[in-house]
User: Which sequence fits this backbone?
């Protein structure tokens, strides 16, 4: 049924226009709030710097000196909330926007010095930078003029590495890691990179006590007074008094604290002395079995110390989600030993938790509530197995015409689900090697869903599945469900009107069907680990859901004849089974625009195609697609767009429209696209960051062929729901809007306002409903409500949610 989001049916149009006017006025008047001796920096220019270094050089201009973009509303917002009596406030500063860049000669000098140092570090050893300030009408322009002089290039590369083993190790890896080569322009960043790479190589090859300061460079000919622009570099790896030694891992002692408070100083505990495979395991909490924990110690006895194995141990033990703190220390038995013993101290976190969530979705015609309780146990079998049990229920009621809330309940939903997730791949006759890039999981899940639509139907669904999740690399995730079993049965209300059934035959068939589904799923995800980073990348989530092929094969082997095209499908255990394929893709392009600004373009598309045993009965109700909602076309509620040009107003019967009220508008094909610009409004806003977004969304759902329509008995409307390339643009729903994201680091609370631009349920120019919103909105809505009731029309859609929309 319709997944209503939080909705607020209020008028914001006048307020929004007024706020826009105020901000526009504020944008032109910043100078009036400063003292007569002050000026606002409107422009900063850096002349005569190589183009490839321009952006980096600008970063050395002090932040308080950088003017805001001409199109930014940050300064106008700041002016709106932080001025009083014609001046900027000096206290009680509100966390909105950013202040204008006020000229400060000290900051100009610091910026000049930093830019000059930067140019010298990039090989322009004779670089000189001067600054000039031009002021007019309390507006300032700052210009930094550079005389970089000649660039210096590396002429000779030598090294002084007295330790033969280290020198050989460096030379063996040099080709793959070094940025230094003869003839390159001198760059101090390359020297820093070389030092870091040598340090990494040493720490990966047993040199436990190796430090970064051991790596340094002698630079010859780099003096600004030098007559030549050539530099000689000599790499030094200095030797400590005891020399550089490689170390092997001795034994590892894993110690688990008695409780989440850690290890008390005043109590002594008896450590275990039993060593198995080089690991001593002591659990003072008595909560954990040994093998599931020590499995993720990658510091193996006898192997060379490798910092990658140390980091891998940290990562996997944290990913078990049962320890709140992991600490690894090392010690040597004596100064002559080449073995280091590891001590892994683990502090457990709380095992059990319970979360209650609720919402009150409502709009002009309905009100309801959803309530859920989720119990979690992160260590149910003492091996970091995560057990989760969720119970969820909700009601939806019609309101209006004087009816009291919940006096006309038309929808009831209830579900109970449980899952057990084990932190490894449980595969019969095969023990896969644990991935070094992420924690693998096996999940066993089961759920029961009950949905009642008053005077229409009751649906019950049992779902059971086994899923394997593993990590190929940090950016490549795989999820495979080899077994997904679903048993669904529903029935129509005995009192449902016969004419309603005939006019809504396909929908009635979907809701009243009894069948089995046995299939498998696979999903591949690329770059999910980058979603919270400000960088440019492509995100992909592609999946395939296939069902029925195995049962079809079993049915044929049994020799039973069937004719699905003539309503005689093959059956297993007395029930027909579903046969379909359902590919879906979510493709996004994230473009970093500097700072905390980002542009996102997204395409979400999917197809559900029934064949074989389901050629007549079609795709199951729950497997069909919908459009709209807080993560789709946000100017519409979820499940209220399409399919195609479907218009419920063409149903002339008030009784029929009332029966259809609240029923999902579904299709077997979906295309949605989103364009969103993201930016920061306020860095410190009630203890969090307030971010903003502006977006444009478009999309719809369609049916792939005739007969899949929710109005099978109405051929004209059935035709309007089918996807046709020549009608694609005509059938698109388009909306725009703005949103706020309240980012408290671990959660993002989201509020979006979507405005309908183009509505495909209408025809011709009437589809561009934005014209009606700007002129004649009240009359348009009254006419719509009269012909489509009990449905009502809203130009604005308000969406609340947790997390980013995509």
Assistant:
């Amino acid at each position: 049924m319709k997944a209503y989001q939080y909705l607020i049916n209020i008028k914001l149009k006048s307020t929004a226009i007024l706020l826009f006017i105020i901000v526009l006025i504020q944008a032109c008047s910043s100078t009036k709030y400063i003292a007569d001796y002050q000026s606002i920096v409107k422009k900063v220019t850096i002349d005569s710097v190589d183009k490839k270094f321009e952006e980096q050089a600008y970063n050395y201009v002090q932040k308080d000196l950088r003017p805001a973009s001409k199109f930014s509303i940050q300064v106008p917002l700041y002016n709106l909330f932080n001025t009083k009596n014609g001046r900027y406030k000096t206290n009680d500063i509100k966390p909105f926007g950013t202040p204008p860049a006020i000229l400060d000669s000290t900051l100009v000098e610091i910026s000049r010095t930093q830019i000059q140092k930067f140019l010298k570090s990039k090989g322009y050893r004779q670089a000189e930078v001067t600054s000039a300030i031009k002021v007019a009408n309390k507006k300032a322009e700052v210009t930094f003029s550079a005389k970089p002089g000649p660039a210096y290039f590396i002429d000779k590369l030598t090294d002084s590495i007295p330790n033969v083993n280290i020198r050989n190790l460096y030379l063996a890896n040099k080709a793959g890691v070094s940025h230094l080569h003869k003839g390159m322009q001198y760059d101090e960043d390359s020297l820093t990179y070389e030092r870091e790479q040598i340090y990494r190589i040493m720490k990966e090859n047993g040199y436990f006590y190796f430090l970064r300061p051991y790596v340094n460079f002698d630079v010859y000919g780099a003096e600004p007074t030098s007559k030549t622009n050539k530099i000689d570099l000599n790499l030094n790896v200095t030797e400590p008094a005891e020399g550089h030694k490689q170390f092997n891992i001795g034994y590892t002692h894993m110690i688990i604290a008695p409780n989440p408070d850690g290890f008390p100083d005043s109590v002594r505990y008896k450590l275990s002395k039993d060593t198995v495979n080089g690991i001593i395991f002591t659990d003072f909490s008595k909560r954990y079995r040994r093998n599931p924990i020590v499995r993720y110690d990658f510091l193996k006895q006898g192997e060379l110390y490798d910092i990658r194995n140390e980091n891998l141990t940290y990562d996997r033990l944290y990913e078990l989600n049962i320890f709140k703190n992991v600490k690894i220390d090392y010690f040597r038995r004596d100064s002559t030993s080449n073995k280091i013993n590891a001590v892994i101290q683990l502090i457990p976190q709380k095992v059990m938790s319970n979360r209650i969530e609720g919402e009150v979705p409502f709009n002009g015609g309905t009100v309801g509530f959803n309530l859920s309780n989720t119990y979690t146990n992160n260590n149910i079998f003492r091996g970091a197995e995560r057990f989760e049990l969720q119970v969820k229920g909700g009601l939806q009621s019609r309101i209006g015409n004087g009816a009291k809330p919940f006096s006309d309940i038309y929808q009831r939903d209830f579900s109970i689900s449980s899952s057990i997730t084990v932190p490894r791949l449980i595969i019969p006759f095969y023990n896969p090697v644990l991935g070094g890039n992420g924690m693998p999981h096996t999940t066993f899940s089961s759920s029961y869903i009950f949905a009642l639509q008053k005077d229409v139907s009751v649906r019950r669904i049992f779902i059971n599945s086994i899923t394997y999740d593993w990590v190929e690399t940090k950016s490549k995730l795989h999820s495979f469900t080899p077994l997904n079993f679903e048993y669904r049965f529903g029935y129509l209300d005995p009192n449902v009107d016969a004419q309603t059934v005939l006019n809504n035959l396909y929908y009635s068939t979907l809701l009243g069907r009894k069948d089995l589904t046995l299939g498998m799923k696979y999903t591949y995800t690329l770059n999910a680990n980058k979603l919270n980073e400000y960088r440019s990348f492509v995100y992909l989530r592609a999946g395939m859901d296939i069902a029925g092929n195995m049962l079809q094969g079993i049915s044929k082997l049994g020799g039973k004849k069937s004719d699905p095209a003539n309503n005689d499908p093959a059956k297993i255990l007395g029930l027909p089974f579903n046969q379909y394929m359902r590919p879906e893709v979510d493709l996004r392009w994230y473009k970093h625009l500097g700072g905390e600004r980002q542009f996102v373009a997204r395409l979400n598309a999917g197809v559900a195609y029934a064949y074989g045993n389901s050629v007549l009965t079609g795709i199951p109700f729950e497997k069909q697609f919908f459009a709209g909602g807080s993560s789709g076309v946000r100017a519409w509620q979820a499940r209220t767009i399409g399919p195609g040009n479907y218009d419920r107003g063409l149903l002339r019967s008030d009784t029929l429209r009332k029966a259809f009220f609240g029923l999902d508008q579904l299709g077997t094909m979906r295309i949605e696209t989103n364009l969103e610009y993201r930016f920061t409004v306020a860095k410190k806003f009630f203890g969090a960051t307030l971010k903003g977004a502006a977006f444009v969304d478009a999309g719809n759902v369609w049916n792939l062929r005739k007969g899949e329509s929710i109005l099978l008995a109405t051929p004209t409307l059935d035709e309007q729901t089918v996807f046709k390339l020549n009608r694609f643009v005509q059938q698109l729903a388009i909306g725009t809007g703005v949103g706020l994201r309240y980012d408290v680091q671990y959660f993002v609370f989201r509020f979006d306002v979507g405005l309908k631009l183009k509505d495909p349920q209408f025809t011709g120019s009437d589809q561009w409903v934005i014209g009606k919103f700007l002129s004649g909105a009240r009359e348009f809505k009254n006419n719509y409500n009269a012909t489509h009731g009990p449905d009502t029309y809203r130009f604005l859609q308000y969406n609340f949610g947790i997390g980013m929309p995509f």
